Amino acid sequence: STRVTCGLYLMSLYFHRRKFLGIAGAVTALAFDPAALAGRWRYNMKRDWILINSLGGLEDPNHPSSPNPGDEPPTASPRVIADIRAAGVSAINQTIGHVFGAGEPFEQTVRAIAQWDALIRSTPLLVKIWTADDIRRARAQGRIGIIFGFQNAVMLGQDASRVDLFADFGVRVIQLTYNDDNPLGGGSMSPRNAGLTAFGHEAVERLNARRIIVDLSHSDTQTCLDAVRASRQPIAITHTGARALTDLPRNKSDEELRAVASGGGYVGIYFMPFLTRGRNATAEDVVAHVEHALSVCGTDHVGIGTDGSFTAVDDMRSYLGDLAKSVAARKAAGISAPGERPDIVPFVPELSGPGQFRTLADRLSARGHPDSTIEKVLGLNFLDFAQRVWGG
Q1: Distance between the two ends of the chain, CA-based, in angstroms?
Q2: How many angstroms separate the CA atoms of 49 and 216, rounded?
Q3: Residue 144's closest CA among 30, 53, 218?
Q4: Looking at the predicted structure, is the pLDDT value of residue 336 above 60?
Q5: Residue 312 forms beta bridges with which residues?
Q6: Is 327 within 8 Å of 343 (Cβ atoms)?
């Protein structure tokens, strides 16, 4: 069976550490000193708040490697761990496994799961997340919860029973499509807007049965709307922007945002260049997209999925050289989205390094948002959503 074959394959793997994906991150001339973080911000977040990044990672942008997170084994450097702890973040939805490229999706993904399990076992400050209560425990213990998530579902092949296998391996979030079409539905770059396929419907049913979060971040509009109707559980858009503010394919329409929220779902706003056009995105852009999502979805359904890390760039010139290679590789693979450019960084310079959530809290507070809303946006809404899907 698939499960037996996969289990044997897992046991046969040899693990080693290498550099991981480096295209996401933060750029700033400031050196963030964790010891100096206290008192740096005007707004003092409550110590008992749970901060969650609904799409992020343990990448160090100063050590870039493949532009495809499925290509290389993961690492968790002391600096990255220190930065995440300084940020106060208790859980991160970490992309693992195949996203795009020539690798065989199923084998590549199973290998990645084994490698991430090995990394977590060897890194005491990391903990694998299975339930919402695990996130609460990570916060109480001062550890970093790693949520296993996919940004493509091609590793299912044509066999929906593989959902059971990945559920047993601890995968908690599965994004149905990446930017291109796959057997489940249409990606955000699809010219057809074809919607959820028959196999996509079967996969959603199986994901619901195993209480795995259905993620529609990179889908086309019709696939997202179809999945909302097909799912018996709330769904997520873990990282996106508002198309009403910036009309780019990676952003979601008000119709999609409203549909997800009305079903009890979750929408995470990213720190990506798609929040604007022709320039680097700013903290003001992030706040504008958060506020638009709050107005469309309500205060109980909006969060933050940065699509980046908590470590700042040290050498911008070197970083931009690596970024140009990454953008070229994505274009060659046919999965680059409008807004990706070698001269525009894939993060928000003002919201970089370990202080990014606190800086955003400053901005939201200055705009008049109450503590209750800021706490929800920075983590509580995702935690409550995860509780509804995963349970305690």
Answers
A1: 31
A2: 27
A3: 53
A4: yes
A5: 26
A6: no
